[in-house]
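Worked example

This section walks through a single chain of length 211. The input is the sequence exactly as stored; nothing has been trimmed or padded.
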Amino acid sequence: MVRVPPSTPSPVLPPVSTLPAHSREWLARFQREWDRERGLSVFAYGSLMWNPGFEHVGCEPGVVRGFHRALQLRSLVNRGSAEQPGLVMTLLSGGSCRGLVYRLDPARSEQLLEQLWIREMVVGSYTPRWLTCATAQGVVKALAFTLLRRNPGWVGRMDDAALLHVLRHARGRYGSTLDYLRQSVETLRAHGIHDRELERQLALARAHGLL
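Given that input, the structure is written out below as tokens.
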């Protein structure tokens, strides 16, 4: 089993009732659909890898096909603000992605899914999906947060000058975009995963004195 460091304390989160209507509708659907025998499984590819924010009973490496990781989702709350938007990871269609698959206790899956929703779906940009994850223990259906390219939160591939501006200035309730990028790369490395584009972005920040 993969060992994940204990989660850092999270700020007090708002109630589910404050989420956008479509986020609440998604939550109701996924609450109905998670596996009552196995428990909820979650595919982590960004901050959930180092700070899941929930207790889990299993964690192992996994690969999804048909989606790839990208630092291309605008963040107005967690890693940025309305005045200076930040960036966070998402899954975009195409390619593949290596990450971690968490399994939650069936007895706590409903409660922990709600907590996860408040954290990840506060704006409602993501499109949650059940993705097929290949693991050493077999194939698992896991919840993952993906993004449609038509979503207004998708920023596409930024040029280096624009990316550096975000890395230099963007900060939200969980910290800066720069720290998010650094922690992502370090956590991926710790699990033997080397994401070429994220490594390039971190090297760019270091070359410009941001680290």
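What to look for: The chain has one domain: 19-207.
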